[in-house]
UniProtKB/TrEMBL annotation:
Pfam families: DUF6198. Coiled coil: none annotated. This is YitT family protein. The chain crosses the membrane at residues 7-28, 40-67, 79-100, 112-140. Keywords: Membrane, Transmembrane, Transmembrane helix. It comes from the Bacteria. InterPro entries: YczE/YyaS-like. PANTHER family: INTEGRAL MEMBRANE PROTEIN (PTHR40078:SF1), INTEGRAL MEMBRANE PROTEIN-RELATED (PTHR40078). The keyword Protease does not apply.
Amino acid sequence: MQRHTLACRYGIFFGGVVLSALGIALITKAGLGTSAISSLAYVMTFVVPGVSLGTFTLLVNLAALGAQILLLRREFRPIQFLQLPATVIFSAGIDLWTYLMRDWTVGAYPMGWIPLLAGCVILGLGVALEVLGDVLYLPCEGVVKAISYKSHAEFGTIKTLFDLSMVLSAIVVSVLCLGHISGLREGTIVAAATVGGISRFFREKLGSLLDRTTEETDPSEVSVQS
């Protein structure tokens, strides 16, 4: 693969990471819950006040990266350590976007649906770009890929189960530490139900454009399976 093509794909991937961070910040700002993948990290901000969502997102993703290494062992490719800077950018991006929106007041309950739905669209676009870049995964998606590979199960099925496990973990931690459920509301359900479909829509619309501007990437060069 030519260098400019590889650089383009990494640019697309990291652009998706930044947009995904913005999407999560918007969904959280709505005050109606957060995305499934961020649910455990978000609940931890209630358990340990003063520690940011980005910080806990980083810790969750580092744990996911460690799980990948344990699952894949010698099959874990060194190139996938680039998930580390991607995770730092993602986590810092969440905190940066949150900080930039600090003075924005959502207002009455109906107004909260505006940032929630906008965040779902932006998160879906970000995830689509990460997939279309076809060079890396963020660690939580990477561990899903590793489990799928090792279990010979379909990626989408494992992804759904993984997201569900994150929400259930968040509920358990919230109840055990706080005595009630915090940070998980109707927005979490909406995000879980819509982001996947939005991402699929953008992948279909943008995929042909990407194919025209870059060369085809050999999946064996970037897959955690190789």
